[in-house]
Every structure is written in structure tokens, then in C-alpha cells.
Specification:
Helices cover 40% and strands 21% of the residues. The protein is built from 7 helices and 9 strands; from the N terminus they run βαβββαββαβαβααβα.
Length: 198
């Protein structure tokens, strides 16, 4: 059995990676989402186990000590991590897994799992990125300035990824990612028994 594809999507705050990933999952039921764990408080409308697995800091640190994360990081004062067990079980059973994580986490996973497909979501413009972060209405003035500043800094990591996808319109971005997935699955190195299929 072919191993599933690990698809890692990240990008700067406000690039729209969450919206793109949500639509990708809506259109592709065979892709499994790995829900990240965090110690931050839920935002209005967020559901535990759907948007994030919300945990307290003591439990999170215990999981770090037990080696239960593929990666974890402290971002904006809160811990975020990718639980290991779910991802590895799905990949080994031939299922594709999508990780929507921050850049720091994506680069940590790339060191551990270089066969993954790493996709960087780009905003259509820096002005639009600023508008998206501002219009969320979920940030204090201080955190807003920090997120916008970080977004500019994070763009320099684009060239550490396999692909850059412009999020000019969500449907266009989703089609581009679907094309990347098809191309990756056609790579000879991923098809161990390719000659047996013909």
C-alpha cells in the first residue's frame, strides 16, 4: 500500500490559509485534517476538536515531555502543536493528511518528514493582508501591530517551501493546491509498485 501524502499548508497571518484549507476539505472528502492543539483561549464560534484541540498549559507540557507532538511551538504567548499519533496512523494506512500550521511548525516537520508537500499561501497584496488582519476584529491594537509585522517577516520563508500558491480568490487557490496534489501523486518516487499496475 502506498503511504498517504502529508500536505503542509502555512503562510503569514491574514493570507487566508484557513479559508483555503476549509474549502479544500469541503471539495476533497478523502483528505483528512489534522487538528492542531493549542493553549490559547477559543475565539467566538470556535469548536473544540474542530478548529483546535484546546488544552491547558500543564497538560500540553506533559505531552511535550512524552514526545506526543510531531512539532510544537510557542507563538504569540501560546503553545501550538501537531499531535503525532493521528497523523502517522492515517499516513501509514494510505490516507492523505492536511496540516494547516504556522511557518515555524512547518519547517520543523520538513526536517523530520522531507517527503511531505509544503505549500505557502500568499496574499494577493500586502494591503489586502493588512485589511484581512484588521477586519477580523479579534485582535487588540497591540496584537494587531505584532501580527502585521510578523506577516511581513514570514514572507521571507516562502523559498523554504515546495510551492507558493497565491490566494487571489479562494476557488483559484484550491484548484492550484488540487493540481499540486495530483502532480505529487504522479511522481515516480511515490509509486513504489508502478510497474505492477501496467
Amino acid at each position: 500500500m502506498e503511504e498517504g501524502l502529508l500536505i503542509v499548508v502555512s503562510g503569514p497571518s491574514g493570507a487566508g490559509k484557513g479559508t483555503v484549507c476549509k474549502e479544500l476539505l469541503n471539495k476533497n472528502e478523502d483528505i483528512n485534517i489534522s487538528v492542531s492543539m493549542t493553549t490559547r483561549q477559543p475565539r467566538d464560534g470556535e469548536i473544540n476538536g474542530v478548529n483546535y484541540i484546546f488544552n491547558n498549559e500543564d497538560n500540553f507540557k506533559e505531552m511535550i515531555d512524552n514526545g506526543d507532538f510531531l512539532e510544537y511551538a510557542k507563538v504569540y504567548g501560546n503553545y501550538y502543536g501537531t499531535p503525532k499519533k493521528y497523523v502517522l496512523e492515517k499516513l501509514q494506512s494510505g490516507k492523505d493528511v492536511l496540516l494547516e500550521i504556522d511557518i515555524q511548525g512547518a519547517l520543523a516537520i520538513k526536517n523530520l518528514y522531507p517527503d511531505g508537500v509544503f505549500i505557502f499561501i500568499l496574499p494577493p497584496s500586502m494591503e489586502e493582508l493588512r485589511n484581512r488582519i484588521t477586519n477580523r476584529g479579534t485582535e487588540t491594537q497591540e496584537s494587531l501591530v505584532e501580527r502585521i509585522s510578523s506577516a511581513y517577516d514570514e514572507l521571507k520563508y516562502l523559498f523554504k517551501y515546495d510551492y507558493g500558491v497565491l490566494n487571489d480568490e479562494v476557488d483559484n487557490a484550491v484548484r492550484r493546491i488540487e493540481s499540486i496534489i495530483i502532480a505529487e501523486k504522479c511522481k515516480v518516487k511515490r509509486q513504489k509498485n508502478i510497474l505492477e499496475k501496467i
